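step 3/5: co-fold with magnesium ion
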Amino acid sequence: MSESPKDMVVVKGLCKSFNGVNVLRDLDATIKQGEIVSIVGPSGTGKSTFLRCLNLLETPDSGDIFIDGVNTQEIDVRMLRRKMGMVFQQFNLFPHLSTLENIMLAPTTLLKEPKQEAEEHAYDLLEKVGLSGKAWAFPWELSGGQQQRVAIARALAMRPEIMLFDEPTSALDPTMVNEVLGVIRSLADESGMTMAIVTHEMRFAREISDRIFYMDQGVVYEEGTAEQIFTRPKRDRTRAFIRRVDTVRYDLDKDFDYYGFDAKIDDFAMKHLIEQDRRELLVELIEELFDNFFFLKVEELTFTLGITEKKEVELRFAYGGPELNPLVADDAASLFARNVILTNCIEEEFNIIDGKNVLEFVLPAKKKGN
Ligand SMILES: Nc1ncnc2c1ncn2[C@@H]1O[C@H](COP(=O)(O)OP(=O)(O)OP(=O)(O)O)[C@@H](O)[C@H]1O
Ligand SMILES: [Mg+2]
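step 4/5: write tokens
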């Protein structure tokens, strides 16, 4: 009989707040050596903050984190980062360095690895991520998917025992998502490495994970095997989240590409076979809100589009600033939007959640036979 693996990550009572807003609220979690854990949950529930606390990119307000038995308050940050590689949504490669140089930089400077050894290792890693031919390419010569695979190789170059991934595919064009997930999957299969992956790719999470953490409002609200969480969730909020079979998220800022955004919404609607009339309604509602409201009054916005098993379409707009609900104004645009909502039986809800404006809509599913 094999011994049960040791605890690699133990988190006790972790709290972290930003500007008085409690983001992590007494979070407990344990990840065993060699375990693959996916962390899923709604936007803004502290998933990134949790990962960032693990490798001390954020300093916890209170609570304890033990990595391989050592309290992070007593560990040298450089030691900790060596043990733990992290891959972010944005690849952050050094633009002036080739692929090979990007991968070799940390081992040669931080670990003082001899150049030749680092180079051999870098070539091995490039092969592993399927980029053998790209050693001398610069980041700008690579696609997003390729850049992200380089970023993974770069993290692996430090020979970490733990890998943290924070939405490694959400900045990618949909056509490139699979190549990156494939690399992570093969790492999970072969390496025996401990991995924590924040992802919105539910099917992927389900296939690859030993365990799922469902995070909600700053805690691990429910955890279990993929089977338990995805088919038999015990708690209400987990169930509501899982019911959404797919979501996409867009972060909009000043120079966002409106036509690209429109096309993505259309892609999502097509993929889920949303009927023509509901698709038009969806686009109309979104355009109305953007043209008359968000573009004029909001600087940054996170938009999530989801679909449930029953084919209800859910829209969620979250934005900062003072309390601002576009549906209560007295102007023509607001009236028009209210009318669209009313005549199409769209459910609508506005709340302030953790200091952010959150406007949500649900487009009902089409009744059969209509
Ligand atoms: N450095 C920071 N300064 C101020 N507020 C922050 C900071 N980092 C995170 N927050 C806030 O903490 C909350 C949780 O953020 P976090 O990024 O951890 O959520 P998340 O679960 O990763 O969400 P998403 O799925 O959108 O990535 C958000 O309200 C966010 O605005
Ligand atoms: Mg995040």
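step 5/5: annotate
Residues 18-19, 23, 43-49, 354 surround adenosine-5'-triphosphate (ligand 1) (CB under 6 Å).
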